[in-house]
UniProtKB/TrEMBL annotation:
This is ComFC. The lineage of its organism: Bacteria, Bacillati, Saganbacteria. It comes from the Bacteria. Gene3D superfamilies: 3.40.50.2020. It holds the Pfam family Pribosyltran. Residues 7-40 form the Double zinc ribbon domain. InterPro entries: ComF/GntX_DNA_util-trans (IPR051910), DZR_2 (IPR044005), PRTase-like (IPR029057), PRTase_dom (IPR000836). Residues 151-202 form the Phosphoribosyltransferase domain. It comes from Candidatus Saganbacteria bacterium. Belongs to the ComF/GntX family.
């Protein structure tokens, strides 16, 4: 396998997925440095602005099937968490789910892959079979602000509420836009018994 990898590296030298310069890392050091962390607020945490390096990486990750980006992007989330949230306060991680149809289309849930990267680092479980998206929703960014809340209303469902009772959850998503998706998820997790829900998104979009 190592031999095959060497041959492949000769034919297709590994490149940074963002700037495309030859590099062994999926996101090179130069690109990584361009990401500046945002300041946290009480329960909402976003690593960086949905722009530049993060935006390019997220678009490739989600829409060009570059799942290898989950690991380095998850590492940014871990670094952010280590500076901004006491992870002893978290019992487990819940990724914002995709509707089953969207999941089949894409083949993966980007938030779930990011959660796994965080799980591995903190040795905390990612629990995916708890929160479900039962209503097909339009992508939030395609909608005017006032319709986004309506769009996600009743979109999520909890199955297995006993797992949630008095638990502290880290809810993970890729992009925070108006916050209507994560607040709808938070609401339903709390209604079903969760004690605290901390929200972590990889990026925060201010202008879409
Ligand atoms: Zn780069």
């Amino acid at each position: 396998m190592q031999f095959l990898k060497s041959i492949l590296d000769l034919v297709f030298p590994p490149r940074c997925e963002v700037c495309l310069s030859p590099n062994d890392k999926v996101i090179c050091g130069g690109c990584a440095q361009k990401i500046s962390f945002l300041k946290p607020s009480a329960f909402i945490h976003s690593v960086g602005e949905y722009d530049g390096v993060l935006k390019t990486a997220i678009l490739k990750f989600k829409f060009k099937n570059k799942t290898g980006l989950a690991e380095p992007l998850g590492a940014f989330m871990v670094k952010y968490l280590s500076q901004n949230l006491d992870m002893n306060k978290v019992d487990f991680i819940v990724p914002v789910p995709l509707h089953s149809k969207k999941f089949l289309e894409r083949g993966f849930n980007q938030s779930e892959l990011l959660s796994h990267a965080i799980s591995k680092h903190y040795n905390l479980p990612t629990v995916s079979g708890l929160l479900f998206r039962v209503k097909e929703t339009n992508p939030q960014f395609e909608l005017p602000r006032n319709e986004r809340i309506k769009n996600v209303k009743g979109a999520f469902e909890v199955r297995g509420a006993n797992l949630l009772r008095d638990r502290n959850i880290l809810l993970v998503d890729d992009i925070y836009t108006t916050g209507s998706t994560v607040s709808e998820c938070t609401k339903i997790l709390k209604t079903n018994g969760a004690k605290n829900v901390h929200v972590l998104t990889l990026s925060r979009a201010y202008s879409i």
